[in-house]
Amino acid sequence: MFEALRSVVVSDKPQHVIVGTPADAAKSSTAASSAGVERRAPGPARAELITAAERLFAERGIEAVSLREITREAGQRNTTSLQYHFGNREGLLRAIVDKHVAATSLRRNALLDHLLSRGNVTLREASALLVQPLVAKLSDDDGGPQFLQIAAELVNRSEQLIDPDEPLGALIYDEGGSIDRWSTIVEGLMPPHTAGPPLHRRFAAVRFTHLELGRRARVAPSASLPLFTSQLVDLVAALLGSPLSEETERLLMEREREVNR
Predict the structure, then answer these.
(1) Do 175 and 25 touch, CB atoms closer than 8 A?
(2) Which residues lie below 8 Å from residue 199, measured CB to CB, with a gap of 6+?
(3) Fewest beta carbons within 10 Å, which of 8, 45, 60, 83?
(4) Confidence band (pLDDT; 50, 70, 90) for 8?
(5) Calpha distance 73→65 (Å, rounded)
(6) Region Disordered: which residues (predicted)?
(7) Is pTM, for the whole model, over 0.90?
(8) pLDDT of 219-232, one tens digit each?
């Protein structure tokens, strides 16, 4: 996914990304599973732990909650239950992401199929494909708003590598392939030199969308939802479609000359 992506600015520093396809991500996931903690079959205890973690992570932040607190909130007497099902905090976060990304990916792929069958996709329509499946999570009673707050925190992390097996990687790689398809479509609608390095506007649009939805989920999940959604689509389209200024063009050329020395 994002085949042209080689480095991403997640905070103030350049960050590097492991880039590949959904198939590559699946292979990596299989290898990691055989080398470490296997994913356990779903059951009541597992679902209760995920629900408790969603609530506590959203309320207080991912790093501000102990695994013991999650186990207690889930009503689990066995203090090793969380480790049994998820291995550690990152495994629990990955389970939360997988739970929700599956639905957003399915919805986005359906929208992509419909739009592509019609042809002549506009940049705003392509932007809506990124936004709308995630907006649906604001109305999801099964932890949707909590997931959006957790996802916003994940995309604002400053890891040096985005690994497809880690929680952030599951958001970016999207095993259902919908973000990969979206990325390909939107690249052809963007101004030249903006889709790949060093600007990475597609990743910036994904991150911005998650940050805005996380804020919305925290303060007012259901208020004026159509207006919020339309405005967010407008903003994403503007981010993706804004032409490069003369200054940015000049700085890009200077950077390219320095790299090629």
Answers:
(1) yes
(2) 193, 252
(3) 60
(4) very low
(5) 11
(6) 21-40
(7) no
(8) 988 888 999 999 99
